[in-house]
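Quick start: what a row looks like.
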Amino acid sequence: MPSDLGKRVAYQRRVARMTQQELADAAGVHVGTLRKIERNARGAGDNVVEALAAALGVDPSVLWGSRDRTDARVHAAMPSLSAVIAAYDVPDDGPVRHLSELSTAVDEAVTWRLASQYVRIARHLPSLISELIRAFHLASGEAKPETASLLIGAVRTADAVAYKYGARDLSARLVDLMRWAAPCTDDPLLDATVAYVRRDRVRPDVVCEDHRDQGEPNVS
């Protein structure tokens, strides 16, 4: 780890107006460990740095002092994201949380996007999108539009990372998935949002399963 990692952690902690105990609790590390890190008396693994960065609301590259590790970890997560959306029509088996819990998870992911916390997005969004796809296929009635909206919110967050890191084909497939789900929301504003995201990522027209006569998403 860089020798000035501790200085960066301490500086960002002060900027966030957090005590060492508060940061340690938020990051899930022992306060004694944090003190040693800040004194540069010990190093910190990638997972610890990412936990500290998440608690501080910054991208890990801010603490690492370089984007190299962030870039490598984001790119390493891309295949998982690609595999998840490739199976949109035959989702895997697994648990599905209540819509209120999924809504909270999506809201959190959106805050990561707004804070440019790309490592957290890359690592956590594949499983969240997979769960939302399962929820979407299981939903009916009034739950369908809400589930579709949550799916679009999560996919938009993932697309922001894919597009920023140059995975343009993956980004286009993510936009296709958003456009597939958008008609199911019955929300013109959300349709406009998806159209805005798509503007620089043009692909053939696609819509959701309830509108098969107009096509399906090109996410394979």
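That is the whole record. Residues 69-214 form one domain. Residues 143-164 form the longest helix (22 residues).
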